[in-house]
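Help needed: design a sequence for this.
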């Protein structure tokens, strides 16, 4: 058989096509090993994830513009949509829930999300719930080798580090309303959270201001590395610098337990559209949000916990609860929020009528 001669023009075209195909790193919203290694470990394709709410005490704009909110706990609906977009459902955990009630609820959940909020930095109700949730997750892993994943976002990530360090190393900072690239730590490559992230996403968030920060407090890298407990327990994945030049921890995971912390807020890119926020809505930013959601919900699907009955599940499912549109409230960082009375008794069915504007709250709602 004779040699095949390729015309020079065709050879040049083939080289050009190959260069174009390899120029851009691959993008995706799942870890590259997700279907090969993670999916086969799934034990539950109907995960219910707890979401910790917080009192409205420090949300002055909402208190002044939304009727009958005093004494209520809230959570931004973007956190719920974030979980639902990856195939999970959410259950509210009220900040002042009784310790025994929370102990009874946790075995029905597949994991917990700790949202950003404006709680005080002391040992208040939010932090007490964080401690109980983490202690439960730790016990479950040690005793039964069952994963109970916890994802802390913004203040949630800070409070997890405070719990693990044994001291409050939070520092006042100016990382409010800013989008930044992440500065990756070398440990990212061997991490569970980002070790198998598509290279295109990793590159995009490193080079472009995609990660949205909205924090008055941070955990400085100096405080972190001076704390022996944290260095031993936590793997730093990325750092950033605020407007004052303070370097802080922006992404981490815990070596021994399925706990993850993000000082930035991935849930905002697809779901929060206030023009007052410096949120990046580019495709790469939204894909990174979807990646985080898919990763975390995938972790919760390895947990076999479930409610004993469909009726019990429905009582706790946030799908039945009404949302409040607050996008027209000055300085609100949310388009929608959920509201719950404090000292809530689990199993109470809330009003579910549609809500269109802050001045249209009907008499008797949320009493």
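Sure. Designed sequence:
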């Amino acid at each position: 058989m004779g040699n095949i001669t390729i015309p020079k023009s065709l050879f040049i075209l083939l080289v050009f096509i190959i260069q174009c195909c390899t120029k851009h790193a691959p993008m995706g919203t799942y870890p590259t090993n997700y279907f090969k290694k993670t999916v086969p470990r799934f034990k539950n394709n109907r995960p219910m994830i707890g979401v910790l709410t917080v009192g409205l005490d420090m949300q002055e704009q909402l208190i002044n513009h939304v009727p009958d909110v005093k004494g209520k706990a809230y959570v931004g609906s973007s956190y719920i949509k974030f979980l639902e977009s990856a195939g999970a459902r959410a259950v509210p955990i009220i900040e002042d829930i009784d310790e025994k009630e929370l102990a009874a609820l946790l075995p029905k959940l597949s994991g917990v999300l700790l949202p950003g909020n404006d709680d005080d930095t002391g040992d208040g109700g939010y932090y007490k719930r964080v401690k109980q949730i983490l202690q439960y997750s730790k016990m479950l892993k040690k005793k039964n080798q069952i994963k109970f994943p916890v994802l802390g976002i913004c203040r949630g990530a800070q409070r997890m580090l405070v719990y693990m360090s044994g001291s409050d190393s939070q520092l006042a900072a100016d990382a409010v309303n800013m989008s930044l690239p992440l500065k990756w730590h070398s440990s990212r490559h061997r991490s569970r959270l980002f070790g198998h992230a598509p290279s295109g996403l990793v590159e995009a968030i490193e080079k472009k201001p995609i990660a949205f920060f909205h924090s008055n407090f941070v955990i400085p890298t100096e405080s972190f590395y001076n704390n022996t407990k944290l260095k031993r327990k936590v793997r730093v994945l990325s750092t950033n610098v605020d407007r004052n030049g303070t370097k802080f921890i922006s992404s981490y995971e815990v070596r021994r337990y399925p706990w993850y912390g993000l000082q930035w807020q991935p849930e905002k890119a697809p779901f929060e559209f206030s023009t007052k926020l410096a949120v990046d809505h580019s495709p790469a930013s939204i894909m990174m949000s979807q990646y985080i959601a898919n990763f975390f919900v995938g972790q919760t699907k390895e947990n076999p916990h479930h409610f004993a009955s469909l009726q019990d599940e429905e009582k706790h499912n946030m799908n039945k609860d009404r949302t409040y549109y607050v996008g027209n409230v000055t300085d609100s960082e949310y388009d929608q929020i959920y509201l719950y009375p404090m000292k809530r008794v689990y199993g109470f069915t809330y009003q579910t009528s549609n809500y269109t504007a802050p001045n249209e709250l009907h008499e008797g709602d949320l009493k």
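The longest helix spans residues 125-144.
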